[in-house]
Amino acid sequence: SQQGEEDPQALSIQEGENATMNCSYKTSINNLQWYRQNSGRGLVHLILIRSNEREKHSGRLRVTLDTSKKSSSLLITASRAADTASYFCATDGGAQKLVFGQGTRLTINP
Amino acid sequence: GEEVAQTPKHLVRGEGQKAKLYCAPIKGHSYVFWYQQVLKNEFKFLISFQNENVFDETGMPKERFSAKCLPNSPCSLEIQATKLEDSAVYFCASSSLLGANVLTFGAGSRLTVL
User: Rounded to an integer, what distance in angstroms lies between the CA atom of residue A64 and that of residue A66?
Assistant: First the structure.
């Protein structure tokens, strides 16, 4: 399977609820990033967490990283309709390029 | 500029025809990346440049794909003799720092091969 696999593939929740997405990867990393893709648009960088960090916050976003399990999670709190998008994790794996997973499609229902 | 500009937004080609896509990275960014996204799924890395030099081309189908980043010109990705499976959205991204870099993506160019 690919480096940076997201779980679940699709998630539908009510506005105001929290959304959690998970990412697993295979090789060692220097950092892990999360990106958002709105329909018909390119990726937008959300947050970067380094391999020596365990948790990072940015506004309503909370990212955790467990290098022993080679996994990361993205939590969006108090979701809004505008959060509807696909979310991708990306790892560098020391290969000087980002490798993206297949993404989680998040739908926020009003 | 402060955005990665990709043209055209949509390109339609008949199978076997040539397709050429362009990308103007953010001014001051030395690294350019091309990715292919098929059916809104994962992003497949194609090639990266450091200024006008190819840095990593391990993702390129070399027999039909080529790319350039020449000084004072937009970068380009060219597909000779397109095939149906080349239908995808091609994204260009640029970065100022290789390694722990944050990529800034363009809006993509959708290629439809009929």
Answer: 7
Written as six digits, the tokens of A108 are 């926020």
d(CA B68, CA B73) in angstroms, rounded, equals 10
Best of B46, B91, B101 to disrupt the A interface (most A CBs within 10 Å) is B101
A1 pLDDT tier (thresholds 50, 70, 90): very low
Instruction: Tokens for A79, please give them.
Output: 């979701």
Report chain A residues whose CB lies below 8 A from the CB of B101: 92, 98
Strand residue runs (E) in B15-108: 19-24, 31-37, 43-50, 53-56, 65-68, 75-79, 88-95, 104-105
How many beta carbons lie within 10 A of that of residue B18, not counting itself?
11
CB–CB contact B98 A96 (8 Å): yes
Task: For residue A96, give the nearest of B43, B56, B103 by CB distance.
Answer: B56
Which chain B residues are closer than 8 Å to A44 by Cβ?
Answer: 105
Does residue A10 carry a pLDDT above 60? yes
